[in-house]
Amino acid sequence: MTDALTQLRSMQSADLPVHGGRTLAYVYDSGLPDIDRIGREAVASYAGSNGLDPTAFPSLLRMETEVVGMTADLLEAPETVVGTVTSGGTESVLLAVQTARDAHPGIERPRMVLPATAHAAFHKAAHYFGVEPVLVPVGPDFRADPAAMTAAMDERTVLVVASAPSYAHGVVDPVTEIAAAAAERGIRCHVDACIGGWVLPYAARLGRDVPAWTFAVEGVTSISVDLHKYAYAPKGTSVLLHRTPQLRRPQFFASAAWPGYTMLNSTMQSTKSGGPLAGAWAVMRSLGDDGYERLTRDVFEAVDRIRAGIGETAELAEVSDPDSTLIAVRTDASCDPFTVCDEMAARGWYVQPQMSYAGAPATVHLSVSAATLPHVPEFLEALGEAVAAAVAVGPVTVDPGVAEFIAGLDPLVLSDDDFDGLLVAAGLIGADAAGDPSTSSGHRLALPQRMAEVNAMLDLATPAMREALLVAFLDRLIRPSRH
């Protein structure tokens, strides 16, 4: 057992750091060691508990109702509100879509109206549940266009979606107008506040200008908010709130059509560890309102200082005026965002590349945490160095032959040979390994130290082609490791 734990620590050393404020994607760090410890200990103490049956583990039931109550209070919910703790934002979104679909069994081909900037989880829900996504272009400020959203609603629409904020650009959609249009037509309106839901209310309390988006807005019928983001809870918790029990009822699943126990689920999971819920409850209780307000003050101070530094860097510019803690940055023609990301990684900072889409440029994406505040001077120094290095080498280019090869691919019939050709071109495998069964098992497939050229190739591809290439890549990565 000791050897296994030692090996775990060794393997983890190659991962991105989850503490220290230097990873500006995927993780959200309060910078408070005691809070991290409380969360970890709570997860461990409930790791064996099973949320399948709340009557068997009444402490989990109590924690869930209290977590939902704290969330409802924060989001200005009416007394009628009900909620469920899920495993994350994607599950909350999936359930919001499934519930809207199942509330209208008479609609054979249901649709949902999405701004083009809505999270990809809604596309996943569309794929799983057969709800057609109707994508509506956003305005030049990357916010949803209420008039265009309204025009897209019809008799088959079961759900309308707004973001608070959208992930890619960090802006809050005009929820008041969108929700009013949906309510006028008897359509549910879901606000995806997975990333902003636990920080925007405190931002408003601190006097920042935050557009209305909570249950105080008439017509909002459901909201999703993740606790493992800016509630700084351990990974694995989100809350889905519905304005009334009647709106939530189609979310539940029950089946007595077999000889075992009658299955009854409030989420997509049946068996689920009590650990994440206990971790979230413990962290939320420990921080309290005052703690979250302090952390919000810290994270927005970091955001403001980073934005000021970006404004003083000639080669960089923000693509939007963010309402929250997410910043999207473009480069001028002297360099490219993918090389900037590589250069930041070389300096110990992880920032996320975002591909170009619908005429919008590729960007560097920052999800700022409270823990980043003490390190902002180091971050800006590294960013300046990264930009200078990217300018020195010039924008990354893709070999014209490779670009032509990508343009000629059909995502619907992407073959192993096609994919091997791109792996060779990207330097992920050697030419002698193409078609080798061991390569297909992932033994010779390795990520390069620098991703700029790979990202530049993906950026040339259509969205459908990117999906096909990345699915093929993931398939290669997670083949079994046999000993």
TrEMBL record:
GO biological process, alphabetically ordered = carboxylic acid metabolic process
The GO terms this record gives for MF are: aromatic-L-amino-acid decarboxylase activity; pyridoxal phosphate binding
Organism placement in taxonomy: Bacteria, Bacillati, Actinomycetota, Actinomycetes, Propionibacteriales
The organism's superkingdom is given as Bacteria
Q: Which UniProt keywords apply?
A: Lyase, Pyridoxal phosphate
This protein's cofactor list reads: pyridoxal 5'-phosphate
Q: Identify one Pfam family in the record.
A: Pyridoxal_deC
- Family, as annotated: Belongs to the group II decarboxylase family. Sphingosine-1-phosphate lyase subfamily.
The keyword Lyase belongs to this UniProt entry's keyword annotation: yes
Name of the molecule in the record: Glutamate/tyrosine decarboxylase-like PLP-dependent enzyme
Q: Does the keyword Lyase apply?
A: yes
Instruction: Using the record's annotations, give every residue carrying the modification N6-(pyridoxal phosphate)lysine.
Output: 229
Q: Which residues form a coiled coil?
A: none
